[in-house]
Amino acid sequence: MRILLVEDDQKIASFIIKGLKADGFAVDHEANGEDGLHMALTEPYDAAIIDIMLPRMDGLKLIENMRREKLKTPVIILSAKGEVDDRVKGLQIGADDYLAKPFAFSELLARLQALIRRSSNVSEPTKLAVADVSMNLITREVVRAGKKIDLQPLEFSLLEYLMRNAGRVVSKTMIMEHVWDYYFDPQTNVVESRIYKLREKIDKEFPTRLIHTVRGVGYVLKEDK
């Protein structure tokens, strides 16, 4: 999952980025509204976290411009406790939720996960299943053929992306954009390295391979019949 964070307070931004990355999210951060709007309009995001008080364009104007451009990215507003009117206005112009500062990261994470689930069209949004692999998006438990698989946060995010796109070939560029928080570098082998480690846990001890390489294109998660 890829998140856009627009927050000019570096201490708060670092706190949010650290927490989201630890939970397996990729995060792009901008410190002003103009750059935040540019990123929102040019890059794919699963959700955005936007502060109200921003330099060069405030958060309300940013959200208003996003909705004017028909961008449906779910948005959580961050605001100071006294900005009640601004929070109401934010919801009226298209924000989906708000959180008053100061806040606990656990609450932000729970609201973010709920927002992403509501915005998706997945019929069973808290769980994913492909062949004999199941993934619980709430407890972050992965099981294959009754055996629990322990994954690192990035491995979990990579498997989640592959499972959400089961049967569809995804390129290295697509994986980098949705799982990592930096742009595609054709010289890096980080995707191949993570795919290899994921295969060691998901495929190695089982008779049926699920993660397949499509040479020159990318990867696909499907049952090898």
List keywords for this structure.
40% helix; single chain; 225 residues; 4-stranded antiparallel β-sheet; 2 domains; alpha/beta; 23% strand; Arc Repressor Mutant, subunit A; 5-stranded parallel β-sheet; Rossmann fold
Overview of this protein structure:
By secondary structure, the chain is an alpha/beta fold. It has 2 domains: 2-119, Response regulator (Rossmann fold, 3-Layer(aba) Sandwich); 127-221, Arc Repressor Mutant, subunit A (Orthogonal Bundle). It is built from 8 helices and 12 strands. The protein has a 5-stranded parallel β-sheet, sandwiched between helices. A 4-stranded antiparallel β-sheet has the order 6-7-8-9, with helices on one face. α3 packs parallel to α4 (84-93). The longest helix is centred in the middle third of the chain and has 15 residues, at 105-119. It starts with a strand and ends with a strand.
Strands, helices and their partners?
Layout: E1 2-6, H1 10-22, E2 26-30, H2 33-42, E3 47-51, H3 59-68, E4 75-80, H4 84-93, E5 97-101, H5 105-119, E6 127-130, E7 133-136, E8 141-144, E9 147-149, H6 153-164, E10 170-171, H7 172-179, H8 190-202, E11 211-214, E12 218-221
Parallel strand pairs: 1-2, 1-3, 3-4, 4-5
Antiparallel strand pairs: 6-7, 7-8, 8-9, 10-12, 11-12
Helix pairs in contact: 2-3, 3-4, 6-8
Detail the poorly predicted runs. Answer: none
The total domain count is 2
Count the beta strands. 12
The radius of gyration over CA amounts to 19 Å
Question: What summary fits the major beta sheet?
Answer: 5 strands, parallel
Strand content: 15-25%
Report the mean per-residue pLDDT as an integer: 88
CATH fold descriptor of the largest domain: Rossmann fold
What is the CATH H-level superfamily of the largest domain? Response regulator
The second-level CATH architecture of the largest domain is 3-Layer(aba) Sandwich
Count the DSSP helices: 8
What is the highest CATH level, the class of the largest domain?
A: Alpha Beta
Structural class of the secondary structure composition?
A: alpha/beta
